[in-house]
Automatic annotation (TrEMBL):
Taxonomy, superkingdom: Eukaryota
Key words, A-Z: DNA-binding, Nucleus
Compartments where located: Nucleus
Gene Ontology cellular component terms for the protein in this record: nucleus
Residues annotated as signal peptide: none
GO molecular function, one term: DNA binding
Residue ranges occupied by any HTH CENPB-type domain in the UniProt entry: 79-155
Protein name: HTH CENPB-type domain-containing protein
Organism: Apolygus lucorum (Small green plant bug)
């Protein structure tokens, strides 16, 4: 194999060797790294219930196999982000239903009413390390509460006419 010209790479030994590619040189199949927690949960569900193998579930839901292996290992623990909530899930759901009930009957709850409800609850059932002054939540807590309960934001957008219509149908006023 004659070459007309020698390059600097050839002189330094950086040229490509004429050896056949080894098994280690095979290109790895790229995995799309955009997968949701929902896809991971569905893949794990199929694996744990014997519907699919680990490999097939990874391919089907476009989740890396290594992620599924790690999630099944005892090393994995799901950690909630942010500070622990002041109210339990049941208490927050009760508060949300109280707010929705007021909206339904045409008497929307004001911020002060919600503050007082939470303050009464915390006074009746004391907790350790409550960050509220006098057990009254601030605006930041209310904002985060609304994020945790998006159904309340939908009720806020109902117009006054809709409330009047609700009252008319409840009391059959013509």
């Amino acid at each position: 194999m004659e070459r007309d010209s020698i390059t600097l790479a050839d002189l330094l030994g950086l040229g490509e060797p004429d050896l056949p590619p080894s098994k280690k040189c095979k290109k790895k199949k790229k995995v799309d790294r955009f997968y949701s927690e929902e896809h991971v949960q569905m893949a794990l569900f199929e694996v744990e219930n014997g519907i699919s193998s680990l490999r097939r579930a990874a391919i089907k839901f476009n989740v890396p196999r290594s992620t599924l292996v790690f999630r099944r290992s005892p090393k994995f623990t799901k950690v909630e982000k942010g500070p622990r909530p002041i109210l339990s899930r049941e208490e927050e759901d009760e508060l949300a239903s109280w707010i929705l009930q007021g909206e339904k009957y045409g008497a929307p709850r004001k911020y002060v009413h919600i503050q007082n409800w939470v303050q009464k609850l915390l006074n009746d059932h004391p907790r350790d390390n409550v960050p509220f002054q006098d057990n009254k939540p601030g605006r930041g807590w209310m904002k985060n509460f609304m994020k945790r309960h998006p159904e309340l934001n939908a009720m806020r957008s109902i117009s006054f006419e809709d409330h009047c219509e609700t009252v008319r149908t409840l009391f059959k006023v013509d």
